[in-house]
Amino acid sequence: MSIYNLFRSLAFKIDPEFVHELSMGSFKVLPSALAGLFNSASLKPQHQLDFAGLKWTGPLGLAAGLDKNAVALSFFSKLAFGAVEIGTVTPKPQSGNPKPRLFRLKEDQSLLNRMGFNNQGMNKVLENILMTSESDRPICLGVNLGKNKVTPANEAPVDYFKLYEKFADHCDYMVVNVSSPNTPGLRDLQQESALAEIFESLASIRQSKPSPLFLKVAPDLPEDGLDSCVNIAKKFNLSGLIATNTTIMPEIGQGGVSGQLLAQKSKEVRRYLLEQLAETPDIALIGVGGVSSFDDLWEFWRLGGKAMQVYTSFIYQGPELLKGVCDGIDQALVKTGARNLNEMLVDYKNLPSDWRS
Ligand SMILES: Cc1cc2nc3c(=O)[nH]c(=O)nc-3n(C[C@H](O)[C@H](O)[C@H](O)COP(=O)(O)O)c2cc1C
Question: What is the pLDDT of residues 207-232, one digit of tens each?
Answer without folding.
Answer: 999 999 999 999 999 999 999 999 99
